[in-house]
């Protein structure tokens, strides 16, 4: 089911199911992330359901309870799993952090409220589910995932119309096709973020395997219908030249 017009990223709380017919095949991207063939086959056949909760609260200290998990895998929503966020999609081999980004951690997180997006992901066929907890404050946090191993990442609201923020995402696939507003002056109709930001950016990198992933969340029109989607790009960390990209599409089931 297409997303209702009153749903944006700030009111995403509810139940969503991955639309396999509209989403791209994730097998190649999962293989690049080191997921074995049998598990990839099971994921391809499974129905993946997301139970989403969006709320404002102070940021928590860096820990697995604020993980960047899953934003590049369809199960994790793609570890990005297909998951969390920092600046560019390429890395300087001499630098241990993503180029063009502030990769700092913060052990004394602000007590000011920030957006949290918690996602419990379940899959049919006996596949173990995952939990995706994102704090949109651009602070690096570690995460351990049975599917992807040890990771670290971060996330934030992003303005793709801002030249500086857009420049940190050199891959055009991450920036194209997004709905920007309703055309009637309601610039938050497809986003809901602070200062009119309409997308969420997430970055994650593996600490054990040679890959990193960028994900942008938002809404776009497909076959004349409005859907919640995620664009995911995974690169080899060592040189950034090997690239895989997928679009994940989600059907709206119900609001929380």
Can you describe this structure?
- This protein is mainly beta.
- The protein has 4 helices and 10 strands.
- It has helices spanning 27-32, 37-45, 79-82, 163-167; strands spanning 14-18, 48-58, 113-123, 130-135, 141-145, 149-158, 199-206, 212-222, 225-235, 243-255.
- A 10-stranded antiparallel β-sheet has the order 4-3-2-1-10-9-8-7-6-5.
- The longest helix has 9 residues, at 37-45.
- The radius of gyration is 16 Å and the shape is globular.
- It starts with 13 loop residues before the first strand and ends with a strand.
Largest sheet: 10 strands, antiparallel
What is the strand arrangement across the widest sheet?
4-3-2-1-10-9-8-7-6-5
Cα-atom Rg, whole angstroms? 16 Å
Instruction: Quote the distance from N terminus to C terminus.
Output: 16 Å
**What is the count of β-strands?**
10
The SSE order reads EHHEHEEEEHEEEE
Which structural class fits the helix and strand makeup?
mainly beta
The proportion of residues in beta strands is: 35-45%
Q: Taking all residues together, what is the mean pLDDT? A: 82
Shape: globular
List the uncertain runs. Answer: 61-72, 77-108
Tell me roughly what share of residues is in helical segments: under 10%
- Number of discrete helical segments: 4
